[in-house]
Design brief:
heterotrimer; A: Four Helix Bundle (Hemerythrin (Met), subunit A); 6 helices; about 75% helix; C: about 110 residues; mainly alpha; Helix Hairpins
């Protein structure tokens, strides 16, 4: 049953991401990516990483996707005729992507790793991760807040109307 | 390492002038002239007092070896930083600091209102430091360090007025000619290392008898070649007359009294080796004789007061080497000391004359100065009598000792040496009469301004005049009932000469040489004072073939220029014109051109398309990963 | 139940899934001219890496990797915010979000 869950989620994930990259309409791409994100969250659940699954949904589906949709609406470009690359480039891109897959699997399969899961999995729980983050990674955690702040300032500066142009 | 008092004092002797030199960087031009000059002189005089103390130690207890630390260490070779203060070096220390100190004082007056006043004293202090290292060192390498150091100071001081291109050229010439000698000297040091494995004098002297005599012959020859550079012997003598470009106190200190005698010091220092090398001694005799005669001949026709003295110095140095060659080391050293006194006095007197004449150096424009500059005249006269070897002044004893030693070897050598003495008498009397006696040939406007030098310049003259007068009594020969103090004192360093002439022979030799010198004096007196003869102008000299050869210094400079300098220069010019432009420029330009061409092509990859860059990036990562996997 | 859920699938399958997702992201980056879709592809690649990290973390019983995934999400959020801001600015300036319109990145 668990295996079936994993395979179906993986399938949904791959198919929707393929549609995402091939679909001509940007809006649809975004929505299919949303499906991908949800299925990835599902994969996290199969790995017993509930905390990350929840954060994933909040951050990606909740925040990032909204940002994308907002930008698309803001630019009012759902109607834009999608511009396509030439066939040659498309084929070359696909071929390169397949090569990447080949190389990745080759390198990962040549790596040695413990393929057997360890019993007593509670590392993905919020309490465990909380302890790790607030003990071992406290300073990076605080620094990431500064990163957010600077990102926010950067965004505001980027999109401030240029006073001289007015 | 704790130092006892002797070690500290020995270290202080060279260190004090060095402090003076470095002090220049701190106080520099901020001090007034009198303060800067006084401080610089004070360092040297303190050294002098310490040297007196060390001298008394040495005369009471014998040589002192002072070891400080290992200067260099490589394999089996250890070069210590150590001083050997024995009879020879202690006297040299007295000479360097004593005469050096007097010349410091003199310079306060001579360099008055010169722009580089403090710099001048800094260089003088540095020179004293290096000269002391040279004479105090207990091994050849440390001595060579001092040797090079005094060469540097000589260069700096000859070119002291560096804004004059001719003076700078003279400084370069001195430096380059010295380099040639130093190269041989270095080879000599390599040979010493090869055959002795050490550089320490005492070790080498101990091993000398067990080393191949052929090797010793080569070593001594190379060291002598080095000495010819520093002591201005033929064929490397050409730099010394040009070195007169420097301020006159420099000529007195470096190019008469101390540095140029370093070559003689070196030979005396290595006398154990030289005693084992008869062939080298023959070479030294030949070179010394040739130098003393040729320089004496050239001096006959020089009209620049300092040039005459310069050639006189070369001639006297030749005489010293002549003495070394015949094995009379003590005689050579004796003459070195007396020569330092009277030649320094002559130069300082000449400086006083130049100072009083406001820079005039041509003796044809002088004359009758004895009334204008009484004290300078008096001291100069004492020096002249000393150098032409009239008894009982210093030069008589030392020169007579050399000639007697030469006679012991061969009467011909004596005759040649005495001939050199006659040349000396002629050109020195000519110089003296032309400058101080006869009618004044100076333009009226200048005559009014001629003045006696200040007392700060005259005091050193008095002291040196006293030394020139009594310096000869250091080594009164047995014929006058003397004890030959100097020779006996030096005995631990230099073996006694086996000179045993009959007293009657000795009297005869003295009589002949003194009589001839007196005859020359009378001749020059009648010619230049009674006859009011004046040296011919340059044009008239050029018309007389023989005189012209002398005035042109036997064409040494011209010959060197055409043999060495011009071919080298044209070779270098050719290289610059052809090799530089055709080969080097093309190669470097070629590298640049090829790079430009290739990069111009490669640059097109940067076409500005971001998607292209992305493709390149992905392919690059792919390539790297593939390589990792395949490896 | 959790144990069986994890044990059911070998680690290599998770690796395969994330490799496939990553390759799809690469293809998307390379073949699309639309800047927004390219951003989406970047997100997809980030997700695949996250998935891989979590899978390794679980199979190696090491919670540090999950903490790292957390930080990757943080950085990704910031990156997307700045990236979209730049995208809007680009659109304002050249009135398109076609990547092939950006040809100035050269000397």
């Amino acid at each position: 049953m668990a295996a079936a869950l994993f395979y179906s989620l993986s399938l949904i994930c791959i198919v929707s991401s393929l549609i995402m990259i091939f679909h001509k309409n940007t809006m649809y791409s975004v929505l299919f990516l949303l499906i991908t994100f949800f299925s990835v969250a599902g994969l996290y659940v199969t790995l017993n990483a509930q905390f990350l699954a929840i954060v994933h949904i909040i951050v990606y589906a909740g925040a990032i996707m909204v940002l994308f949709l907002y930008v698309i609406m803001f630019l009012n470009m759902s109607h834009i005729v999608s511009f396509q690359k030439s066939k040659v480039i498309k084929i070359a891109a696909t071929f390169t992507g397949l090569m990447v897959f080949l190389v990745l699997t080759a390198s990962l399969s040549s790596a040695t790793y413990n393929s057997n899961a360890v019993a007593g999995q509670d590392i993905g729980l919020a309490s465990t991760l909380g302890r790790v983050i607030f003990n071992d990674f406290l300073i990076p955690f605080e620094v990431s807040s500064i990163l957010f702040l600077s990102a926010m300032v950067g965004v505001v500066i980027f999109n401030k109307k240029d006073v001289i142009d007015e | 390492m704790s130092l006892d008092s002797t070690q500290i004092i020995s270290l202080l002797v060279p260190l004090l002038p060095l402090i003076g030199f470095f002090g220049y960087f701190i106080y520099g031009d901020k001090l007034s002239e009198s303060k800067a000059g006084t401080i610089a002189s004070a360092w040297v005089f303190t050294s002098f007092l310490l040297s007196i103390f060390l001298f008394s130690q040495v005369s009471a207890n014998g040589a002192i070896q002072v070891n400080y630390f290992d200067w260099m260490q490589a394999g089996s070779l250890t070069i210590p930083f150590a001083f050997q203060i024995d009879q020879l070096s202690s006297i040299m220390m007295l000479l360097v600091t004593g005469v050096g100190g007097l010349i410091h004082v003199y310079s306060i007056g001579y360099m008055h209102e010169d722009q580089g006043f403090s710099r001048f004293f800094a260089y003088l202090n540095l020179f004293i430091f290096f000269m002391l290292i040279l004479v105090m060192a207990n091994n050849y390498v440390l001595m060579f360090a001092g040797w090079e150091g005094v060469g540097l100071c000589s260069y700096l001081l000859i070119g002291f007025w560096y804004k004059n291109p001719e003076y700078s050229a003279a400084a370069n010439k001195a430096f380059i000619v010295n380099r040639i000698g130093d190269l041989f000297m270095l080879y000599g040091l390599y040979m010493i290392f090869k055959y002795f494995g050490t550089f320490v004098y005492t070790d080498i002297n101990g091993m000398a008898s067990s080393v191949d005599t052929a090797a010793i012959g080569i070593i001594t020859l190379l060291l002598f070649a080095g000495a010819t550079g520093k002591s201005a012997q033929i064929p490397l003598h050409t730099w010394l007359p040009d070195a007169m470009a420097g301020p006159t106190p420099v000529s007195a200190l470096i190019h008469a009294a101390t540095m140029v005698t370093a070559g003689i010091y070196l030979v005396i220092r290595s006398n154990v080796l030289y005693a084992l090398a008869p062939f080298t001694n023959e070479i030294i005799v030949i070179v010394g004789l040739a130098t003393t005669l040729i320089a004496g001949l050239i001096a006959l026709k020089q009209n620049d007061i300092k040039k005459v003295l310069a050639y006189s110095t070369v001639s006297q140095l030749g005489l010293m080497f002549f003495a070394l060659g015949v094995g009379a080391y003590a005689a050579a050293f004796f003459h070195l000391l007396t020569h330092a006194f009277f030649k320094a006095l002559l130069f300082l007197g000449a400086g006083s004359v130049i100072h009083g004449m406001h820079g005039e150096q041509d003796i044809r424009k002088m004359g009758g100065l004895s009334h204008k500059m009484k004290y300078t005249h008096l001291t100069f006269l004492i020096a002249v009598i000393a150098i032409i070897a009239l008894p009982p002044l210093a030069g008589f004893f030392s020169k007579d000792y050399i000639l007697a030693s030469a006679f012991g070897k061969s009467p011909i050598l004596w005759a040649l040496g005495a001939g050199s003495g006659l040349l000396t008498a002629y050109y020195m009397m000519r110089l003296y009469f032309l400058v101080f006696r006869g009618n004044s040939r100076t333009p009226e406007a200048v005559v009014a301004k001629i003045h006696e030098s200040p007392s700060v310049m005259l005091t050193p003259l008095y002291i040196l005049a006293g030394l020139s007068a009594i310096g000869g009594f250091m080594n009164i020969p047995s014929i006058f009932g003397g004890g030959q103090w100097l020779e006996n004192f030096l005995n631990p360093v230099v073996q006694l000469s086996e000179l045993h002439l009959d007293h009657s022979t000795e009297w005869m030799l003295m009589g002949i040489s003194t009589g001839l010198v007196l005859a020359i004096v009378a001749w020059t007196y009648s010619k230049y004072v009674k006859g009011n003869a004046v040296p011919e102008s340059d044009e008239a000299t050029a018309a007389m073939p023989l005189a012209n050869v002398l005035a042109k210094k036997f064409y040494f400079d011209e010959i060197y220029a055409s043999i060495f300098a011009k071919p080298l220069l044209s070779f270098a010019n050719g290289l610059q014109k052809w090799f530089e432009t055709e080969v080097i420029d093309r190669v470097t330009d070629g590298f640049g051109g090829v790079t430009m061409l290739l990069s111009g092509q490669v640059r097109k990859v940067q076409n500005g398309h971001i998607s292209f860059y992305l493709f390149a990036m992905v392919l690059g990562i792919l390539g790297i990963l593939t390589i990792f996997i395949l490896l | 139940m959790n144990d069986t859920l994890v044990m059911a699938v070998p680690l290599s399958h998770y690796i395969a899934v994330s490799a496939i997702l990553f390759s799809i992201g690469v293809i998307g980056i390379l073949m699309r001219r639309n800047l927004i879709v390219m951003f989406l592809s970047i997100e997809l690649m980030l997700n695949s890496v996250n998935l891989l990290a979590v899978a390794f973390s679980v199979y190696h019983n090491d919670s540090n990797a999950q903490a790292f995934v957390f930080f990757i999400m943080v950085v990704a959020a910031a990156e997307i915010a700045v990236g979209l801001a730049m995208l809007v600015m680009i659109y304002r300036n050249i009135r398109t979000i076609d990547i092939d319109a950006l040809k100035q990145l050269k000397w």
